[in-house]
Amino acid sequence: MAKKAGLLRAALVIGGTAIAAILSKKENRDLVLNEYNKAKEDPNAYKESVKQKAQGLTEQAKQEYAKAKEDPNAYKENLTSKVQEKAAPYKEKLNEKAAPYKEKFSKNGEVQVEEQKQTFDDEGGANNIHVVTDTNNDVTSK
Question: Which pTM was predicted?
């Protein structure tokens, strides 16, 4: 029973966080408020429109599932090509931003690293290493 309560609590926290993230933008708050007002004005009509949307999505999901079940390899190829097509602009942006960093890599794939020397100071700075040894392990003598 305790595991179920923990799982429920985790689900509530994750759900609350997701809702907070969505509602953090004014546009999304306005959309939610508009939907709430539509539901408040005519609950039955709103209920029917939501049912119709859900049925439409159910039919679309069934069609996609049937396509995938019919020929899994062709469906996978089609889906992969769609993803690559949508990801192409992002890939180009990433390549443009990464161009200056490509110079750091040599042609054989090794990273060219510049060595930095660590300096030690007597004041206990961030780069200082202190080795402490205790030769007297007898704690009761104190």
Answer: 0.42
